[in-house]
Amino acid sequence: MDINEDPRYKLANKEAFYSLLLTLLYFLWWYGFAYGLGSKPVTSYCFVMGLPSWFFWSCLMGFLVFSFASWAMVGLFFKDIPLDSYEKGSSLEGEGS
Amino acid sequence: MNLQVAIPIVLYLAIVFYIGYLANRSISKAKASFLSEYFIGNRSMGGFVLAMTLVATYVSASSFIGGPGMAYKVGLGWVLLAMVQVPTAYLTLGFLGKKFAIVARKINAITINDFLRVRYENKAVVVIASVSLLIFFTAAIVAQFIGGARLFEAIGVPYKIGLFIFALTVIFYTAIGGFRAVVLTDAFQGIVMMCGTFALLIGIIKAGGGMEAISANIIAQDPALLTPFGAGGFVTKPFILSFWILVCLGVLGLPHTAVRCIGYKDSRSMHRAIVIGTFVTGFLMLEMHLAGALGRGVLPGIEVVDSVIPTLTIKILPPIFAGIFLAGPMASIMSTVDSQLLLASAAIINDLYVGYINPEAAHDNYRVKRISFIVTALIGVIVFLVALNPPSLIVWINLFAFGGLEAVFFWPIVMGLYWKRATASGALASMIVGVVFFICLSRYSSILHGMHPIVPTFVVTFIVFVMGSYMSAPSVDAVKKVWE
Asked: What predicted TM-score, i.e. pTM, was given to this entire model?
């Protein structure tokens, strides 16, 4: 298919990719701490602030770390662009042959 | 009824009414097309309101009543399950993100079905989408109305009167204020939810004599309550991993959250909403469910899951805080119902009536305005009457509402947005197969060993979508409209 793609979509696709990636990272954090530290008998659990350590790291810290990470992602990779439609023909490659 | 409990709730209801009234005045003043103002608020949401409405719409009675009740019964494993939802805000906003916002402006879409109509150029796709949206939303709204009335029961108001107060409030502000009223009340309701949640968790920890003492109490009852697997190994891995599809990834396919991604003002609002929304979602999910789980160590022996949170609230919090807290779940229910009510009305007026039956009406602001008020109020009244005496069919449909909407909308939205080769045949096939397959599989879910039926449904609909698309000719015109 031969189309002149809106140049803003490149950025949009990249940002969509980062969002998926951050979701995957959260999954690994969530799964790793919960089952890495939690898959043993309760008698051998460590406790942090009165909570089992798997829960402290997976749920409490996971939430805080990834709230921060979403802020970092937006700050580092997301760009401020106009969302409204461009005037067609204002750029040279606007109308193809 | 306790007066101190009632005061915060009455105050809350009064504020919500007032916001509806303010929004209605701004509709009368708006110069733009009525449909765009009423159903998407002229795309004027800023970052904070966008974040709050996204979270509040998504967070419903299940996160405030059912979920924490399960955490009480099963333990920290259920809190772990709830925390699957932490990425929803950045995933929905970031993934649908700028692409969806840009496309919606290009083709002037004010609903999800508007997008589907332009992208797939197929009447059947839009009609099936609109009809399934109406059916699932109606059932879901009835269920939420019932939940709202039950909350009033908890503070001593009879069911029918509670239902009446609840329904009157939501229908009133949604019908007269449209999208603007919905998102502004959502923002207010989000704040109420956060305060209520925080009050309850602190109250429980104090009443239990600190976290350590509560943990020790829970261990004495059943140590499994503190494991990720829950009491009796209830939270198995196939089960909990399914929720990554159902309540994290699949949220991209919920029309009432997706529509928020085309309603914000500019990219800066969206960036801010990602950060605020992620924090608020995590905060609410963690604190609410943790309150349920820890409640077990403070006040053991509550049998009915749905009455855990109301009971804890009334017994543990001082009355005035209990009132604030009960306004929290009420806010969570209202903020979900209002969006669904408005979208159901949009499906009838914008997607079906203006879209196919009478396109000219879009330019007749006065006429379309009158119809919109009436239709929104009428849907609300019908739902209210049904909720007075809910038939078992509605209860049955509601079981499939959440997953059913995802089965219908997920791939058509995602593929339509990111895959140029996607066609109407693919979308149509995946929608029909999706909803039929999902409901059938739900009946025989025992063969899945704890996996939720939505997971195989997503796989099957994906295959059907891709095959259907390749077997039909590429849709060149539609792709140009969306991509150029």
From this structure: 0.91
Residue at B121 is within a domain = yes
Answer yes or no: is pLDDT of A1 > 70. no
Q: Which two tokens stand for residue B242?
A: 């399914």
Where in the sequence is the domain holding B61, given as residue range(s)?
Answer: 3-394
In a domain, B424, yes or no: no
Chain A residues with CB inside 8 Å of B212's CB? 47, 50
CATH value at residue B19: 1.20.1730.10
ipTM at complex level: 0.91
Contacts (Cβ under 8 Å, ≥6 apart) of B274: A70, A73, A74, A78, B51, B89, B90, B93, B94
| Model pLDDT, residue B151 | 80
Count of structural domains within chain B: 1
- Evaluate whether residue B439 is within a structural domain: no
Query: What is the structure's pLDDT at A93?
Result: 39
| H-type alpha helices, B350-391 | 365-388
Q: How many other CB atoms sit within 10 Å of the CB of residue B179?
A: 30
Q: Say which of A47, A62, A74 has its CB closest to residue B274.
A: A74
User: Which among B95, B283, B479 has CB closest to A19?
Assistant: B95
Write down the pLDDT at residue A86: 62
